């Protein structure tokens, strides 16, 4: 899940590429590189291990002229992060230069064949094999006129390739062109006047144009300054579908916050309001999800719901499971998309499959969607990125209107996903009599005031920062929750793990006695999410069990709770709320705590090591 960017026009490409790579750096930050071309002089490649800033320092005082260029920021899959494995890669005889996001699965076999043809490789990447395959096809595989038709070279080469790719290709044979090709990994083309911007997503493009074309699988685009020629691998001409991007530059700036993650935590009152806007009608106590209109009856009468997702989206899925079973009384299962797609699952016709994904590009979730579609299930998407792959694969869906989420650790997308799942379960529950009108109206009232209750919690950030200070040096921790708060415990643990590198495990509180309790001592903080509900007394006993082993208890409790206050070491109060909506409030202190601990430990909060925002490879 690398970041790809390209420019062809009359401006200085290097500036646009560097700025674009900085916008895409959340997709991977192991190494970076650019290649610059223009009709007059040869192509120049600059690349290095490290961040885009290191690349910018590298090209300072170098020849960075050129009005055509491609740029890449890497998340290493094959070959360690170093200068040689950094992209762009040039073919052995210098005919082709390319950047790649994805994985070439049959690269080893292709490499062997190319070595037999005399090709020598400098690094360990699958991409270096691919660029040399293009050259081999161009020099040896094709004969006569064909060689001089760029799309023929690309098509013939890609026919030999298995795997996923988002590619930008430069060829010294056709110096005034950029060739783009997509299969599995996202690519967007920004349409300007006499210029084109190409990128893995729209964030580097909106500074210049809001008109974009989302490439589909097997699309090939031949792009020059004067035009764009779109076709597919079967050589069928495609009509470009130009769409407008619905977010602006401010939304992808830090807005005065130190980190995108903190900005996105504080944006949650707005992102939840935006996700409810036009859908949750407080006055007439109504929920309307237009994106589900064509499948609503099937949803209401569903025999089974299967939720597929990864990471934080999977945690939101578990909350969804509890909501659909409680409000709509529909049996619901939550599956790790990566496991679901390979375990030959039982999928019945008309099963409802809900795919949850912030980026809409997560490879395993996308594959699970395709598998479910093939099996005849009705596949619905809950995604945050308009125009991304999963929404384009599903028959219906609901966008979370959280706005661009740049911080690698997902925060506002999680609460927006839960907001959508809550509205879905409520409206299905009302329709299939799982909920009566009064219960439904009460939930509308409670959901409607969630944003202001989150604002109240955010005002307590200083107290949360002080508690974080107390545990910032630990190396392990446990998160506990019951019912709807069990997935919140999982999410809290994931946030701490991924940005502070402290090992943390989330558990259903009662599970603690079956093993994890052995870990407890005075050095282990146990974060217990314990707001008032039907199992409150049980969670109080769990806290006493931890205290009996001298564990340090940090409890998230309902405002005014005195019982737990008298037992726990630290408490963080959240406003009173219907238990089914408690995940939307109780996760906020956990997001803030992980943020403060990570910053106190000097971690790169927005770009945690080894992670990337959108996992577009398996
Ligand atoms: C969460 O903070 C992580 N970034 C990661 O677990 C993420 O939730 C997962 O990769 C799924 O991403 P998606 O929602 O874009 O599909």
Mean pLDDT: 95
Strand-residue fraction? 15-25%
Mind telling me the C-alpha Rg? Answer: 26 Å
Low confidence ranges: none
Q: Tell me the distance between the termini.
A: 10 Å
Number of helices: 19
List of distinct ligands in this structure: 2-deoxy-2-amino glucitol-6-phosphate
By oligomeric state, this entry counts as single chain
Q: Per the principal axes of the C-alpha atoms, what is the gross shape?
A: globular
Helix proportion of residues, in percent?
A: 25-40%
Number of strands: 26
| Biggest beta-sheet profile | 8 strands, antiparallel
Across the major sheet, the strand order is 3-2-4-1-10-9-11-14
Structural class: alpha/beta
Topology, please?
Blueprint: E1 3-8, H1 13-24, E2 31-37, E3 44-49, H2 52-59, E4 68-73, E5 89-90, E6 96-104, H3 107-116, H4 126-141, H5 150-158, E7 163-171, E8 174-183, E9 188-191, E10 196-199, E11 211-214, E12 219-224, E13 227-232, E14 242-244, H6 260-266, H7 268-276, E15 280-281, E16 286-287, H8 296-300, E17 305-309, H9 311-327, E18 332-336, H10 337-340, E19 352-357, H11 363-374, E20 378-383, H12 389-393, E21 396-399, H13 412-431, H14 437-448, H15 450-458, H16 461-471, E22 476-481, H17 486-500, E23 503-508, E24 525-529, H18 536-548, E25 552-558, E26 570-574, H19 582-600
Helix pairs in contact: 3-4, 4-5, 7-13, 7-15, 9-13, 9-17, 13-14, 15-19, 16-19, 17-19
The structure holds 2-deoxy-2-amino glucitol-6-phosphate.
């Amino acid at each position: 899940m690398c970041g790809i960017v390209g420019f062809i026009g009359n401006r200085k490409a290097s500036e646009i590429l560097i700025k674009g790579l900085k916008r895409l750096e959340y997709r991977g930050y192991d190494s970076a590189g650019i290649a610059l071309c223009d009709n007059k002089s040869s192509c120049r490649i600059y690349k290095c291990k490290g961040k885009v800033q290191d690349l910018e320092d590298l090209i300072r005082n170098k020849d960075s002229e050129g009005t055509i260029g491609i740029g890449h920021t890497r998340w290493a899959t094959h070959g360690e992060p170093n200068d040689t494995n950094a992209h762009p890669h040039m073919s052995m005889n210098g005919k082709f230069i390319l950047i790649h996001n994805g994985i070439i699965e049959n690269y080893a076999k292709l490499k062997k064949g190319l070595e037999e043809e005399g090709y020598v490789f400098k690094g360990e990447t699958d991409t270096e094999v691919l660029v040399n395959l293009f050259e081999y096809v161009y020099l040896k595989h094709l004969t006569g006129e064909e060689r001089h038709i760029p799309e023929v070279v690309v098509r013939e080469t890609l026919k030999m390739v298995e795997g996923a790719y988002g590619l930008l290709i430069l060829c010294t044979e056709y110096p005034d062109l950029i060739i783009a090709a997509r299969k599995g990994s996202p690519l967007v083309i920004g349409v300007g006047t006499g210029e084109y911007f190409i990128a893995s997503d729209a964030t580097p493009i909106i500074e210049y144009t809001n008109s974009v074309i989302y490439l589909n699988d097997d699309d090939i685009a031949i792009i020059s300054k004067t035009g764009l020629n779109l076709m597919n691998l079967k050589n069928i001409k495609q009509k470009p579908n130009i769409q407008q991007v619905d977010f602006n530059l401010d939304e992808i700036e830090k807005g005065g916050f130190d980190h995108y993650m903190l900005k996105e935590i504080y944006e949650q009152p707005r992102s939840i309001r935006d996700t409810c806007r036009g859908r949750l009608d407080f006055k007439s106590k109504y929920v309307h999800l237009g994106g589900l209109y064509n499948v609503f009856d099937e949803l209401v009468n569903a025999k089974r719901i299967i939720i597929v997702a990864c990471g934080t989206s999977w945690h939101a899925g578990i909350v969804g499971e509890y909501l659909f079973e409680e409000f709509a009384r529909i049996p619901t299962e939550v599956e790790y998309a990566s496991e679901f797609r390979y375990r030959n699952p039982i999928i019945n016709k008309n099963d409802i499959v809900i795919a949850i994904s912030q980026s809409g590009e997560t490879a395993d979730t996308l594959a699970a969607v395709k598998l479910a579609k093939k099996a005849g299930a009705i596949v619905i998407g809950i995604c945050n990125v308009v125009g991304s792959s999963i929404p384009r694969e599903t028959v219906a869906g609901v966008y979370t209107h959280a706005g661009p989420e740049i911080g690698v650790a997902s925060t506002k997308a999680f609460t927006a996903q839960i907001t959508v799942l809550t509205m879905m379960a409520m409206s299905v529950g009302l329709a299939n009599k799982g909920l009566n009108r009064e219960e439904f109206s009460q939930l509308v009232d409670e959901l409607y005031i969630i944003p202001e209750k989150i604002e109240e919690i955010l005002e307590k950030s200083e107290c949360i920062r002080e508690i974080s200070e107390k545990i910032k040096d630990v190396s392990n921790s446990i998160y506990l929750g019951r019912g709807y708060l069990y997935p919140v415990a999982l999410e809290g643990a994931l946030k701490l793990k991924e940005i502070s590198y402290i090992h943390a495990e989330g558990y259903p509180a009662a599970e603690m006695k079956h093993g994890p309790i052995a870990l407890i001592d005075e050095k282990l903080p146990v974060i217990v999410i314990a707001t008032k509900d039907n199992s409150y007394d049980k969670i109080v006993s769990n806290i006493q069990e931890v205290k009996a082993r001298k564990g340090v208890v940090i409890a998230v409790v309902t405002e005014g709770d005195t019982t737990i206050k008298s037992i726990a070491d630290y408490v963080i109060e959240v406003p009173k709320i219907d238990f089914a909506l408690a995940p939307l409030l109780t996760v906020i202190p956990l997001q803030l705590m992980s943020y403060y601990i990570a910053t106190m430990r000097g971690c790169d909060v927005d770009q945690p090591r080894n992670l990337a925002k959108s996992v577009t490879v398996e």
